[in-house]
Amino acid sequence: MSANSRFPFYKIVGTGNDFLFLDFRDDYLTDVNRPVARAEFVRRIANRHTGVGSDGVVFVEKQGSDLKWDFYNPDGSSAAMCGNALRCMGRWAKTVLGKDEVQFHTRLGLVTVRYEGGRFNAQLRGLNVSPRALPYEIDGSPLEASLINTGVPHAVVRVSTISNEDFLLKHVPHLRRHPVAGIEGANVTFVQVVDAKEFKTVTFERGIEDFTLSCGTGVLAAAAEGLGFIPSETSAKLTTPGGILEVIYKDNFSVAHLIGPAEVICSGFLEERFLR
Questions:
Q1: Which candidate in 60, 82, 155, 259 is catalytic?
Q2: DSSP state of 171
Q3: For residue 202, which phi and psi values (nearest 5 degrees)?
Q4: What is the pLDDT of residue 248?
Q5: pTM of the full structure
């Protein structure tokens, strides 16, 4: 097997959210004639039993002289944004390129990630987090969630505690495919208020179809809901099952900074059988 037939990868984790980064910058990788579609390839490699395993897969490619990413959920569906993967992209750039700052193209535009004081600060621009009401019922009791788009849609529910998973799961079937959320549905994010600028949160993620240890766009949605969409620069601390993140909103909630750790778990090469 030649080196050019193997796919280099890094596995990087950010507050319990793990991602595979595949380096497709070189011509011999971007032009490889893959006999399987990319979505099927993702389903194979993201499988935790027969592949490497991950919460998402990122193909790092060139766009002219710039970088771009192509992001996939482990079920093979693509996603416009993933907040924790942005920070992990910053770790990839620091590890592979030796850069403390990286800009790259996503389906939502250009994103900047900086390494600052041991953490990675991912900046998203052009957001519109204005909530829409999602009415639903559980056991005949009328309830309402907020649909908030932080790159991908989240149905956000305020709860007294995020610790009771059985209770949270009762809400998921009513909101994951809520008709207001569109054909692909929404992630379902729960937020518990600790104080005015501190929250606990957990997300049931579409494409994974389970709770994850952390969801970056879910953290952004939970922060917007918890902070009450106050039109001024504001920040919040959010605790997820996988760790603590900081969110800073600016410019009437149109600019967000998601700040937290990201670490390399391992690196290596995917073998030729994954190309079949």
A1: 82
A2: H
A3: -150, 150
A4: 96
A5: 0.92
